[in-house]
Design brief:
Helices cover 42% and strands 12% of the residues. By secondary structure, the protein is of the alpha/beta class.
Length: 445
C-alpha cells in the first residue's frame, strides 16, 4: 500500500483510552460489603429465575438454570418456599426430580412449618410425594453411614493415643449411673431434634430436672418437667393400649389355654400407663423389668407400690447403663427359667432423639428371647410434620432391618379430642398428626 494511503494513527483514540484508564484508576475500590451485596443480588436474581421457571416453564428450562448453578436452597421471602415447594405445588414429577437431583432441600420448612412433601400431600400428588420422601430416606441413610464412619475414625484415634492423656474428657465412659457414656455428634441430617441443652432436649439434663404430676385441662393426668414440657400425657393411653394388644396378643405365650406368662422389659415408666396394662395381662407376666433413671419417677413408682408387685423389678438408671455387655447378665435375671431373654421389649424415653433410638436397636439381638419376641417403641419422632414423620419411620425400619428385625406398621387414628385443651399449659407440643404409625418388630427369620 502506498505510504500516502496508509491510515495515520488516531491521536483521538489514544486520548480516549488514556482517559478511560485514568477513570478506572481513580474509581474507589469496592468494599467487601459492596461485593457481598452484588453477589447476594446475583444469587437472588438467579434463584428468582429458577422459581419462575419451576412454576411456569418446561422442565428443559429448569434443568438449564440448574446446570448454570441456580441456588436450590434459596427460600423466597413471602412464604418461605424453596424451588421444591413450588415444584410440588405445580405437581410436575419431572421438575420435582430435577430439583432434588440438584440438591433441593427435601425437608425445608416454610413459615407455616410445611415441607415440600406436605405440599404434594395436600394436592394428592402421590408420585411427587414418594419421590421427595425417598430422597429424605436416602439422604438420612447416607448421613448415618457417614456419622458411623466418623465415629470409627474417632475410636481409632483414641486407641492410637490411649495413655497419652490421663485426664477424663468428654465422651469417655463413666461408671456413674445417669452419666453419658458417649459423646454426641452434631447432626447435619434430619431435623428431628435441634441441639438443645434444656431438659426437653438433653436426657442427662432431664434426669436432673424436677417433675410434677398434674391434671391437664383435658381432664387427663400428665407429668411435666420444670420447664412445662409434657414428659408423658394421658392422651397417649389409647395408643399404649394398641401397643400392648399388638405386642402381646399374637405371642404364643398369650394364646388361649397358655399358663406361662411373658418376660417383659419396658424402658421409661412415665405415668405407668403401659406397665399397668402389662400387669393386667392374663396370664400375668413371669417377669416385668422396668428401667427408669429419673429419681422423681422412681419415687413415684415406690409411692404407688408398683415395685412390690409380683415379678416386677425396677432397675434404676438409664438404658445405656444396663444394656451394655458387663450388665447384660444382671439385666436378664429372672428370665433364665424361660431360656433367657425378653419376650416383649418396649421403649419410650424422654429427651432422647433418633440417634439414641438407633443405638438401642443394636442392643436388641442380645436381649430378645426367641424369634417370637416382639419389640416396639413410642413413635413420636418428627411427629409435628407428616413428611418428616414418614421419613423417620421408614428410616427406623431400615435400621431395624440392619440388626435382623422386620417391621410391620399399624396406622392408629388419633382421637380428634387431642386438641387445644390437651396442650394448654404445655411449652412444646410434641404431637400434631391424625395418624400414629405403630411399629411391631420381630426377628427376621
Amino acid at each position: 500500500m502506498p505510504a500516502s494511503r496508509r491510515a495515520a494513527p488516531s491521536t483521538r483514540s489514544k486520548k480516549a483510552n488514556s482517559t478511560t484508564a485514568a477513570a478506572k484508576a481513580a474509581a474507589p475500590a469496592k468494599t467487601a460489603e459492596q461485593i457481598a451485596q452484588e453477589e447476594h443480588d446475583a444469587l437472588v436474581t438467579s434463584a428468582s429465575k429458577l422459581i419462575h421457571a419451576v412454576t411456569y416453564s418446561p422442565v428443559a428450562e429448569v434443568k438449564r438454570l440448574l446446570k448454570e448453578g441456580a441456588p436450590t436452597w434459596y427460600q423466597e421471602e413471602s412464604m418461605g418456599w424453596n424451588c421444591l415447594h413450588f415444584a410440588a405445588e405445580r405437581g410436575d414429577a419431572d421438575i420435582v426430580k430435577a430439583c432434588l437431583a440438584s440438591g433441593a432441600v427435601w425437608n425445608a420448612m416454610d413459615f407455616l412449618g410445611r415441607t415440600p412433601g406436605d405440599i404434594s400431600l395436600s394436592i394428592n400428588d402421590e408420585k411427587s410425594y414418594i419421590m421427595i420422601r425417598n430422597e429424605g430416606i436416602r439422604t438420612e441413610m447416607l448421613h448415618h453411614v457417614l456419622q458411623a464412619a466418623k465415629g470409627d475414625e474417632s475410636m481409632e484415634e483414641e486407641d492410637n493415643t490411649e495413655g497419652a492423656n490421663p485426664t477424663k474428657t468428654e465422651g469417655q465412659t463413666s461408671d456413674k449411673p445417669g452419666e453419658s457414656s458417649t459423646s454426641h455428634m452434631t447432626s447435619t441430617g434430619i431435623t428431628l431434634r435441634h441441639e438443645d441443652k434444656t431438659s426437653a432436649g438433653d436426657n442427662l439434663e432431664f434426669m436432673r430436672s424436677k417433675l410434677v404430676w398434674e391434671m391437664g385441662d383435658d381432664g387427663k393426668e400428665r407429668v411435666c418437667d420444670a420447664d412445662g414440657n409434657g414428659v408423658m400425657m394421658g392422651w397417649e393411653e389409647p395408643l399404649m393400649k394398641e401397643h400392648v394388644r399388638l405386642m402381646c396378643n399374637a405371642h404364643p405365650k398369650m394364646q388361649e389355654g397358655a399358663t406361662e406368662g411373658l418376660n417383659i422389659l419396658n424402658i421409661g415408666y412415665g405415668l405407668g400407663i403401659i406397665d399397668d396394662m402389662f400387669q393386667g395381662l392374663t396370664p400375668r407376666p413371669i417377669s416385668h423389668t422396668v428401667i427408669e433413671g429419673h429419681p422423681d419417677v422412681i419415687q413415684h413408682i415406690k409411692k404407688r407400690g408398683f415395685d412390690q408387685k409380683p415379678g416386677v423389678r425396677i432397675l434404676e438408671g438409664r438404658w445405656q447403663d444396663w444394656c451394655k455387655d458387663d450388665k447384660l447378665e444382671d439385666l436378664l435375671k429372672g428370665t433364665e427359667e424361660s431360656g433367657g431373654g425378653f419376650d416383649v421389649v418396649f421403649i419410650d424415653t424422654f429427651a432422647e432423639g433418633y440417634e439414641e433410638l438407633k443405638d438401642f436397636f443394636d442392643v436388641l439381638p442380645n436381649i430378645l428371647a426367641s424369634p417370637e419376641s416382639v419389640f416396639s417403641f413410642w413413635n413420636g419422632l418428627g411427629a409435628t410434620n407428616p413428611t418428616i414423620y414418614d421419613v423417620a419411620s421408614n428410616l427406623a425400619e431400615l435400621h431395624l432391618d440392619d440388626v435382623g428385625m422386620k417391621t410391620e406398621w399399624h396406622d392408629v387414628i388419633v382421637d380428634e379430642s387431642v386438641a387445644e385443651a390437651t396442650w394448654k399449659g404445655i411449652k412444646r407440643k410434641y404431637w400434631d398428626l391424625r395418624v400414629y404409625k405403630l411399629p411391631i418388630a420381630t426377628m427376621n427369620i
